[in-house]
Records
---
Amino acid sequence: RKKITLPTLLAMHRRHDPITMLTAHDFPSAHLADVAGMDMILVGDSLAMVALGMDDTSEVRLDEMILHCRSVARGAKASFLVGDLPMGSYEVSPEQALESSIRVVKEGRVHAVKLEGGAEMAGQIRKITTAGVAVLAHIGLTPQRQNALGGFRVQGKSTTGALKVLRDAIAVQEAGAFGVVLEAIPADVATLVTKKLRIPTIGIGAGNGCSGQVLVQMDMVGNFPPGRFLPKFVKKYGHVWGEAARAVEAYRVEVKDRSYPAPEHTYPMAKEEFLEFER
Ligand code: KIV
Ligand code: NA
């Protein structure tokens, strides 16, 4: 497969070819997404929850994100890689945002960074892109601000809310973002925003009128313990957790009844050698 670059993605957008994006957080999940032909892989800070067991994304640190970015970079050969800037690594100033972005790209070996926020982050986006690092913006529901937003709530449902989403989208485009993630907004709003922009929109919980889609890999393959809350927009395409749980339980049973390891898993020894050893 040919390496996906920024020009590849923008060409796809021009010919209305939907852009596929999936998260990954380590070597195997990146390899899987890459081999499956994902155009983009996101090392999302959702890894705080799905890979590190944290309660929300606000806990994960920049150095932790960089470690995961590097593992993903080793697993992906063709997909375009985007690393999330975690909460606290970019909001303070455009300079802080650029320093963090350079670390994510240089040490994390990804091709671009993503940050949450609209018009208020225009300074950060301009600073980073001017230095030559590509930025994917993220507006609508921005999980790093869940406490300020009052939880995971759909954004842009009112006329004023929808106008804010549109203004934020235009602001990040004008600041130099190469694309924008639209999370948890009404489909009609996302479709209209997509039509008004020159840059591609990547939807998650934003309907099928976006230029592309992104999902959290562990959610869509069903690799999470029973009882985990899933947002309405997640489609569970697989049951990986159930399959892994079945395998581990079978192993436990076979160790207990000594049916594992069987002869075919065991190293034999010549009889005479063993008799000698036994003496
Ligand atoms: O962290 C993440 O996985 C994300 C996507 C849900 C867009 O930001
Ligand atoms: Na994220």
---
Amino acid sequence: MSLDVRTRRPAVRGLASGLGWPSDSSPGRDTSPLGWPAEAAPTVSRETEADEEARRQLASVVPQADDSTPLAQELAENARRRIDLHGRRFPAPTRTRVITVANQKGGVGKTTSTVNLAAALAQAGLTVLVLDNDPQGNASTALGIDHHADIPSIYDVLVDGVAMAEAVQECPDIPGLLCVPATIDLAGAEIELVPMVAREMRLRSALSAYLKHRTASGEPRLDYVLVDCPPSLGLLTVNAFVVAEEVLIPIQCEYYALEGLSQLLKNIELIKAHLNPQLHVSTILLTMFDARTRLAAQVADEVRTHFSEIVIRSTIPRSVRISEAPSHGQTVMTYDPVSSGALSYLAAARELADRSVSGEEGR
Ligand code: ATP
Ligand code: MG
């Protein structure tokens, strides 16, 4: 099984797709994957030199701990990360990045990663939209968003063609974080979408119209759109692959982690070939890493060997605080911002944001 997706990118950059996707070579225009011209990046400032120096000095007084005291080592590491990351503003991408979080394997941390990365990016000054594209509605719950049966939701957008603007809600805890919730109705959408015209394109058309609506009504540009997927490769996931340019795959650091991955990559290749030539796996995030087991380290090593630099350096530890947060209608970023889980998601979000500046984005 060749897992190196970086070498499998087809030569499609610069080609008009025939599906309305912009070619990269369109002169003088920096366009989004949705055919929407990018505005000038909003002024999300980088840190000043003085801020950086203050962080460096603070971090230098954190005591060093050796391998013999893992707890002290973890505390010191958390203190350093807190000093380095808290209150830092992340750079805005030059255009809206639409990232689908997918893995047909269940329970690998898709929803947890979607909501916590989204929260971390929003807390760092960016405008972020989460599309809850899973009938379980777990992302809506974790963001504290109302999603009972009568609420306008992604089902209405996909099946009834309701404008996305009518279904968008603001996350109560985090300014700049928006969500289109999922209700239980969405469970029927897989079947209801089947006879529809352009059934794979419906989410993309809806998001494209919403981005235009935001610009027309003077609302700030969205920096990130993160799409949470169900654990299947049905029409809902296909819609999520068609709306995005990037795929983020969370991989749980456990046995069987890589099983099913080749099927997922094959499906992404198919979507790329037939529906969305821009689609590529830009990011892999290792989740539920348990430093006490050798197995977790082995899985992490294997994934890094296959996927090299698209794997985010910061792994997400298995953490009770992360799993408790949704029952309080919160992400771990507000539930316990100083926990190692929150700091890991913050570090991962920073890497994600920095990649759009360095132009890596998995290419
Ligand atoms: P599904 O395929 O059902 O949509 P998923 O891939 O979205 O699942 P999550 O719902 O994010 O996975 O996570 C599965 C379970 O594991 C949840 O109960 C969640 O709280 C827990 N969990 C996720 N990440 C962590 C972590 N780092 N530490 C501890 N528990 C975690
Ligand atoms: Mg989920």
